Fold each of these.
Amino acid sequence: RPRKKANVSSQNRPRIAPINMTPLTQVSWCLGALIEQININISQ
């Protein structure tokens, strides 16, 4: 898996969570960001 820059995401998800998100959306967004961060750490 090729290395990516930290600020480049495979999805169009922004790095900063939007303010008008529901708690459920926030949880799933945080989970996605966490999984992506783990994947980046593994691939380094």
Amino acid sequence: MTTEAKQNDPWARTRNGKPVVGAIARRKYTVTQADTDAWARISQDFNPLHFDEAAAKESIFGERVGHGGVMQAVLHGLLATEVPGPGTVFLNSEMRFQKPVRIDETIEGEVEVLEVRDDKPICKMALKVTRSDGLVCLSGTGLLFTSHLG
């Protein structure tokens, strides 16, 4: 790529370069009690569904469940380190929480490049988190901007 082409390519100065439509990144993570405690401290979400075994047992879930924000955090990590990579931030997101995640359950986050703009370092991504039993617990899309980092 010529110097002039690099100057005109908004992806040229990003760490991972322009993502390819169809590129997928995945990461497994086990949601622990420590994660639940940390998220509650950050968010101030001390909902009994996450902490009170007796109350949670009477709920629709029948047991304590992890915070949805922890699932989102796994996706954020993939987007910021893998695809599109360092410098990536959300412009917009739409997520549907479909199933709960249990404490001490291993989940798998997955992001897939759906669209890539040529005029700006912006892309649309599919977002998904799957439980260890194969059920999708979160799905959605995100519009992301990737900044150059010098």
Amino acid sequence: MGAMDNLLLADDELGQVSEDVVGGLIDLIQLLERKYTDLGSWQGETSAIVIEYLSGYVSHHSGVFRTEIPDEYGARQCSWFVESLKNEVKGKLAREQIGMALARKGRGDNVNLPPTYKEQIRDLVSRIKLIIDDAAIPPDRHDDIMAKLNAFAAEIEKNQTNLEKLGKLWLSLTRHAGEGAKNLEPAVRLIERVRKMIGGVQDEQEAAEAAAITQDIRKRLPPPSA
């Protein structure tokens, strides 16, 4: 019985398992791999113990995991079970990150503008103001556009620029230009330049986030079994 006790995870080891359901499975797999790799390999009793621990965890969280529990407790079934769980975890982590990204979009798009971009956008905003002031448009249209332009100009100075103000400014300019204010078309072209610049920054930042997400998933996943 003493030999069997040596094969089991100690209480302090089990205490390392995260309360997060998916993170807890990752922790458990890593614990088992460290312990039984040190013992040699997953053969005989070790294979059975690994499957028992993992199947118990999966059964307890049956509403989360879909990997089928093996009917037999051999080394081959153990390796298959562990790798299948790793693949399922990988998919769940990816979906989790996608969900977080969608949630961020739901709260509104934000972009971290580099100083050089802010400087260029300030210049474009100043040029747009001159065009609007010189345009022969009714006062209510002038005031509507200027209010939105000033709101966007203030947003540029923040560490995280929310693009909602840019969208409202663009809609205001294009609507008034479409209603006959042709002298606003140069301002529309300039605001399109601003949108294109910011879109480029967004693409770069989203690519960096995607790379970071991939790296985070790889770090959180246990390595493939030998």
Amino acid sequence: VTDFWDTAGQERFQSMHASYYHQAHACIMVFDVQRKVTYKNLNSWYRELREFRPEIPCIVVANKIDADMKVTQKSFNFARKFSLPFYFVSAADGTNVVKLFNDAIRLALAYKQHSGDFMDQVLQELE
């Protein structure tokens, strides 16, 4: 079973409750290529993610490439800085969306099967 959660605007609260990260096995961090502030916010979201889930795989996604395909020629350093997979997608027209989710599921399952994450062990004991 795979669950996907969307923050649905939670970024306006500057952080999310720790329970939001409970049993997460992967994270997809999406920014809007038309709104620079969403890219700038990746640092704080990534820091918070690592506070609660230090080892889970994380993918960085540039969304809304359908608005201007030239954006795919740009270099976004955040993913490279942290050695994270990076995708250009369009949720509007579906470009790379299936590939993104297939890869995220694959990474999450691999992580779950081979996790040495202390929090995973604690959560497993509590179940």
